[in-house]
Amino acid sequence: MLYNLKDIIRLVDKEDRGIAAFNVFGYEDSQAVIEAAESIGRPVIIMANKDAVNHMGVELIGEIMLHVGAQAKVPVDVHLDHATDMEVIERAIRSGYTSVMFDGSQLPFDENVERTRHVVEMAHAMDISVEAEIGAVGYSDPDIRFNARFTEPQEAKRFAQLTGVDALAVAVGTVHRMEMQKAELQFDRLQEIAKQVDIPLVIHGSTGVADEDLAKLVRFGARKINIGTALRMEFGQTLRRQFADDPKEFDRIKLFGPCMEAVKDKAVQKMELL
Ligand code: G3H
Ligand code: ZN
């Protein structure tokens, strides 16, 4: 069943738990994540990032996610992740995504506020929730040109008040696309932001967070925990093992079966930590 971001977070907020938000890239991982959530009876968020949108278009990946989400026995939010292009956001809203993220983290404060407010106006008119970012969570890949910076609590407070967003991504030490769980987190900063801001906080780049810190993030005020690379690694590594174990196999459905199982197991493990 489909939920928007605001309502799905309200469900986990009541229980003082977090919700996992997984990047997916097609049918196989979307379905695996939904099966994972159903197997433990937890709500879940599935998200299309820029790579998925560039690969197959915002509508097609949206159709896949919306279809599996609507059939699911647990609440599912279908989210557009890290969008910087207004046209893509408008297309996602028209397609029925239940939430969108406008990522203005590389813009000056006032411009980030102005563009985020515009997205909030468009999305809220359709009962679609909006996430935005203040501060900037960087990338481990040095080829990605990006100005990373920590979130300042007072700035986060002003940003939330001025924009009316439903959830706020903050930078407290995570880095996108880490392959090892070695992020050095600033829990004091997170706690201070949570004190100042009364909307749910989002942590990006959570593949790099140690298992015990994932649970701690939630205790210190985070609600939506974004995980992408961990599932991509699981899928890719399992596929590589399949080729090695059975070099004659060419049928993608047979090759993808164990990859879906591996993604499902990893998704369950992450969700249980939250
Ligand atoms: O928005 C997506 C997440 O921040 C994913 O980050 O791939 O480092 O887990 P990750
Ligand atoms: Zn992210």
Topology:
Elements: H1 5-14, E1 19-23, H2 27-40, E2 44-48, H3 50-56, H4 58-71, E3 76-83, H5 86-95, E4 99-102, H6 109-124, E5 129-134, H7 153-163, E6 167-170, H8 187-196, E7 201-203, H9 211-219, E8 222-227, H10 229-245, H11 252-273
Parallel strand pairs: 1-2, 1-8, 2-3, 3-4, 4-5, 5-6, 6-7, 7-8
Helix pairs in contact: 2-4, 2-11, 3-4, 4-5, 7-8, 10-11
Glyceraldehyde-3-phosphate is lined by residues 23, 81-82, 176-178, 204-208, 226-230.
Could you please describe the fold and organization of this structure?
The chain is an alpha/beta fold. It has eleven helices and eight strands. It has helices spanning 5-14, 27-40, 50-56, 58-71, 86-95, 109-124, 153-163, 187-196, 211-219, 229-245, 252-273, and strands at residues 19-23, 44-48, 76-83, 99-102, 129-134, 167-170, 201-203, 222-227. The protein has an eight-stranded parallel beta barrel, surrounded by ten helices. Helix 2 packs parallel to helix 4 (58-71) and helix 3 crosses helix 4. The longest helix has 22 residues, at 252-273. The chain starts with a helix and ends with a helix. The model has no long low-confidence stretch (mean pLDDT 97). The site of glyceraldehyde-3-phosphate has 16 residues, from strand 3, strand 8 and helix 10. Residues 82, 176, 204-205, 226 line the site of zinc ion.
